[in-house]
Amino acid sequence: MTFDIRQLNAFLAVVQHGTLGRAAQTLNITQPALSRTIRRLEDQIGAPLFERYATGMMLTSFGQALLPHATLLQREAEQATEEIDALRGLSRGTIRVGAVASAVSLVLPMAIGRVLAQWPNLQVHLVEGVGDLLTDALLTHDIDLVIGVSMPDTTDICVIPDCEWHDTSQIIAASTHPLRKRARLRLEDTQGHKWVLPPRGTAPFDELMHLFASRGLPPPDIVVETRSIIAIKSMVAHAGFLSWMPHPMFEAERGAGLVDALSIPGVVLQRRLMVFRRTKGILPQPAVKLLDELRLMWARPASR
Question: What totals of helices (H) and strands (E) does the chain contain, helices first?
Fold first, then answer.
């Protein structure tokens, strides 16, 4: 079966906007013209793609089956157009990458800087987040590469070999936190103090829960959950909270004398950062350029 990219774009527009009217307005065509396009696609497939209601359009099981393939084909067509335009000097191309905050703090800026030094016309779309957000962005084609701790073990996402780094997570507190007055600090001494962390289900949250459980201790008092790294560091530095964070993320605050790791024997976790991509589809050339630089950085002993 051969698909017409214009029909797929129409299909995806209706999925995104929920009604023929809004989708037609976005595509700058009339509603009857859009309806005919959808009908032709349904005739080609031999099955209805939408259930039509007064309130809008809902995907049928056939539409649900077509959706991921239509999304992939649309993105591949956009990438092909972008790369051809770039060769003709009509476009600059875009690196679309997502990363956990630890990588955004050091590894990724260095790699992006080196890529842009060689190809200054490239643009960068950067998404910072934790695992679930980055997984969704990768699968919806908002980004093409992810630097993270782990990704779901599925057929849709794969790890890229020979490209990894390590960081070290520790408990952090303000330089003026009362716990710093203790001569021999233990993990149990942190109980009774308030904590701020990324939400449950994220790697930092799960790591800290496992740490306390492995010592036979009840979970810490997590008062605030937020995805904002700025908020976490601010609450540690200025509001007496404790947190769990990889070292590169609080280096600036440590250098300013605001925040540092607590010296607790054995309470250190080394993490492995890896690069992930979608299993299916061609990796766009801007992403290939970034991946090449990340591999070079991994090969340099000083960058590990």
Answer: 11, 11
CA 207 from chain centre, in angstroms, equals 19
| Residue pair 151/164 in contact by the 8 Å Cβ criterion | no
Q: For residue 243, what are the β-bridge partners?
A: 172
Residue written as tokens 């054995």? 266
Q: What is the pLDDT of residues 33-64, one digit of tens each?
A: 999 999 999 999 999 999 988 888 999 999 99
pTM of the entire predicted model: 0.64
CB atoms within 10 A of CB 304: 10
- The rounded distance, in Å, linking the Cα atoms of 151 and 114 is 26
Write down the residue that tokens 């090969």 correspond to: 299
Residues in the chain, total: 304
Residue 222 neighbours by CB under 8 Å, 6+ apart: 195, 196, 197, 205
Does the pLDDT at position 303 exceed 60?
no
One-letter amino acid for residue 51 of the chain: E
Give yes or no for a contact between 33 and 46, defined as CB atoms under 8 angstroms apart.
no
**Cα-trace Rg, the chain:** 24
> Is residue 52 classed as helix, strand or coil in its secondary structure?
strand
Measured CA to CA, the distance from residue 78 to residue 84 in angstroms comes to 10
Compute the distance between CA of residue 69 and CA of residue 66 in angstroms, rounded to an integer: 6
Residue written as token pair 């589809």:
281
Above 80 in pLDDT, residue 85? no
